[in-house]
Design a protein that fits this description.
Layout (H helix, E strand, L loop, with lengths): L1 H17 L4 H25 L5 H21 L16 H23 L5 H17 L11 H4 L3 H13 L7 H20 L4 H12 L2 H6 L6 H21 L2 H17 L1 H17 L4 H29 L3 H9 L8 H16 L4 H18 L31 H23 L3 H4 L8 H18 L6 H4 L1 H16 L4 H23 L12 E2 H7 L3 H10 L3 E4 L3 E4 L4 H10 L4 H8 L15 H5 L5 H20 L5 E6 L4 H9 L5 E4 L20 E5 L6 E4 L2 E5 L5 E6 L10
Parallel strand pairs: 4-5, 4-6
Antiparallel strand pairs: 1-3, 2-3, 6-9, 7-8, 8-9
């Protein structure tokens, strides 16, 4: 059933090509139209609580049939034959090969690895599971308001594959597809900015090798989808300026509406390009005003149902969304803008050097002392920790930065500033202004700079700020590549080749050793590493190996078994002086992905972001719940009392083939007064995240007894509790 969704996309692509668009333009247009259809089908089916397999199959089958008719009946306005490609030189082939490898490897990771990002466990995938179970996207009681109050398009896209595919195997393809489409969009931008073939290929390589982009492309967050809509708005805006054709105005409006429906960040990035198109397009004032109102109407139409659901929760939905997300600044201030800019640049410029990062941090602090602002001012900083430079997180998708790209792009910015000064000195009008219908790298960079300014003015600095920088890096890839390549002189060609090699080398680490979805084995406890940490490390390693602490015996490196309390006690008794150090090593997060993507179970991968012991405890809790469902066919409703790590329950139990339902109970926030879409639950199991809780619990007159001791406390209805469930 999954194939019908992708078949619909390819037919939409073919329809746009028959209508006269070039291949790359048609691909982006098809992305936008299919996204609008996703929103439409999801909202319409939700009204009738029919968001299920066969209604979705019927919807996408209709799209396929209409697409087939249109492809047959539309008279081709351009040649439909495959284009003839010019001969490629060695460097072009190498660039295409590097991009192909990155796209292929991230695609494999997206298909094989289960969703395991922390935000996905909390709300991205949890809301998808609730919607699929309820057959509607209507609000439901939940302890986690993020599941209701965050713009939902990314999850709508995932929901299609979740229902049609019957599992979450395809969930990460939403982000991967967004990366692929963004590469196409960036190549178009580079072409419209005057880039030759080498410039366009280099722009694609710059984008493909972004460490944050590589890590995001195989996960289930929404940053790359937000980036895609910003890229689409920029592409369609430039096409509108160049051609003045209404179709680009319509597509620009649709892409902007999708940006508002995906992430506020995308809106910030897209607004300057939308305004640029309205100002530069060769239309009458009346036509420009009409386009502005059309954009507003489309935005309201796409967001109407979501805003209605927000109004159910609060009379001030936008304020509630801001409080839940906690990302918006408390006030707009010039010093706050400068603070955000300086800290953002410093975050991206961090290198694997303690001395460099210390100097960079000192410079940031001096700038803040000069402007009279605390570096962690709560008006411009999300609470949760002091300003830091994350040297230790190059392969973590929440914190990774793009240092190589940052230095290259800074060089490009300096070159563009010099070009701007040169044009300003030479007062000739032809040099100071772009002729009608033409866009320059300087104009494009100015629009992107305005987006950066808006971002610094409106968004607080936070430890995961580098995630939000992704659309800026992707969009500027086009301008940077065109600037570096220039007119193709030998010196510039050598420079471009050197930059390409550096970026490819920098892409290897996030590509192969994604901390949450590592392709290759990593994180084994080594004899050498233990010897460096404790005096008798080699002896302790041999003892661990002899006493069954390793799942596999491999001489000088081992992958740890599930470490029980009894094993922990034996280790402490054998080596009391070294116990604390050894224990901290074997429970470290870096051991979470020990055997690589193809040799690690789905359960281990799902809990992989947690340390070894916590992961094992979570796995035990899930197995306990699984046993209850297996032993009692009438036990199919689970109450979620409190906590945030919800989605692993959905994923692991669903993969076992159980038909079950998870509902949040005893909800005390604004959603607690809402009805359950499938009626009041009568849980046989209650799950509470934590390590402390009463021995028994009373819920709606039923008594539940505690069956586990954390990190999930699982309470079982005493009428079905079976003996022998202790650990």
């Amino acid at each position: 059933m999954q194939l019908i969704f992708w078949l619909a996309f390819f037919l939409l692509w073919a329809v746009w090509m028959r209508a006269g668009l070039r291949i790359r333009e048609a691909l982006l247009a098809a992305q936008v139209v299919q996204a609008v259809l996703i929103v439409f089908f999801t909202e319409i089916l939700s009204v009738f609580q029919a968001l299920a397999l066969w209604p979705l199959v019927a919807c996408w089958s209709t799209v396929v049939l209409v697409g087939l008719v249109l492809v047959r009946r539309i008279r081709a306005r351009t040649s439909t034959a495959l284009p003839s490609f010019p001969s490629l030189n060695v460097w072009d082939i190498l660039i295409l090969t590097a991009v192909g490898v990155i796209v292929s490897v991230t695609g494999v990771i997206a298909l094989v690895a289960p969703p395991n990002n922390y935000d996905s466990m909390i709300y991205h995938m949890s809301r998808v599971a609730h919607w699929a179970a309820n057959a509607t996207v209507d609000n439901y009681p939940t302890h986690i308001l993020l599941q209701l109050m965050v713009q939902p398009f990314a999850e709508y896209a995932i929901l299609q594959t979740y229902i049609l595919g019957g599992a979450d195997y395809w969930a990460s393809l939403a982000q991967w597809n967004a990366m692929l489409a963004s590469l196409v969009g960036v190549s178009l931008l580079a072409e419209m900015l005057g880039g030759n073939r080498r410039g366009q290929l280099l722009a694609v390589l710059f984008t493909a090798t972004l460490p944050m982009g590589i890590l995001q492309s195989s996960g289930t967050q929404n940053d790359y989808l937000a980036t895609l809509w910003a890229v689409c708005v920029a592409v369609f805006a430039l096409l509108l300026i160049k051609t003045g054709r209404r179709r680009w105005g319509v597509l620009c409006a649709l892409a902007f509406a999708l940006a508002t429906f995906t992430k506020a960040l995308a809106v910030i990035v897209a607004v300057p390009f939308l305004l640029w198109a309205l100002l530069r397009v060769r239309w009458s004032v009346r036509q420009k005003i009409a386009l502005a109102f059309f954009v507003l109407a489309v935005v309201l139409a796409v967001n109407a149902a979501f805003l209605h659901r927000m109004a159910e929760l609060s009379p001030h939905p936008f304020q509630e969304m801001k409080l839940v997300g906690k990302a918006g600044v408390d006030c707009v201030d010039v010093r706050g803008i400068l603070s955000s800019a300086v800290r953002g640049v410093a975050t991206q410029l961090a290198l694997p050097s303690d001395q460099w990062n210390a100097a960079l941090l000192s410079a940031v602090q001096r700038v803040h002392a000069w402007i009279g602002l605390d570096v962690n001012d709560p008006r411009f900083t999300v609470p949760g920790g002091p300003f830091l430079l994350w040297l230790s997180a190059p392969v973590l998708e929440d914190l990774a930065t793009n240092p190589v790209h940052s230095w290259v792009y800074l060089f490009s910015v300096c070159s563009l500033l010099w070009l701007a000064v040169y044009r300003l000195i030479n007062r000739a009008k032809s040099q100071r202004e772009d002729p009608p219908g033409r866009v320059s790298v300087l104009s494009f960079t100015a629009a992107l700079a305005l987006a950066v300014l808006l971002f610094c003015a409106l968004v607080k600095w936070q430890v995961w700020i580098s995630r939000f920088h992704l659309p800026f890096f992707v969009l500027f890839s086009a301008a940077a590549a065109v600037t570096i390549v220039g007119r193709g002189s030998k010196l510039r060609s050598y420079l471009a080749s050197l930059v390409a090699i550096g970026m490819c080398i920098g892409a290897l680490l996030p590509l192969l050793f994604n901390q949450q979805r590592s392709l290759l084995p990593s994180g084994a406890l080594t004899k050498a590493g233990l010897s460096r940490s404790v005096e008798r490390g080699g002896e302790i390693f041999d003892w661990l190996q002899r006493n069954g602490y390793f799942r596999e015996k491999e001489g000088r490196a081992g992958y740890l078994n599930m470490v029980t309390a009894e094993m922990r006690g034996r280790l402490k008794a054998a080596y009391p002086a070294e116990y604390e150090t050894v224990w901290s090593l074997i429970t470290d997060d870096t051991l979470s992905f020990s055997r690589g993507l193809f040799y690690t179970s789905q359960e281990e991968l799902i809990f992989g972001r947690f340390g070894k012991v916590l992961r094992d405890d979570l796995s035990y809790n899930v197995r306990f719940i699984r046993r209850q469902l297996q032993r009692d066919n009438g036990c199919r409703e689970i109450g979620f009392l409190s906590g945030v790590i919800e989605y692993p329950l959905w994923s692991l139990l669903r993969s076992d083939g159980f038909s079950f339902r998870i509902e949040h109970i005893m909800v005390d926030n604004a959603s607690g007064r809402l009805p359950y879409p499938r009626g009041e639950p009568e849980p046989c199991l209650i799950v509470q995240e934590g390590t402390e809780g009463p021995a028994t619990m009373d819920y709606r007159g039923r008594i539940y007894q505690r069956g586990t001791y954390g990190p999930y406390l699982v309470y079982v209805d005493e009428t079905i509790l079976l003996k022998g469930n202790g650990r």
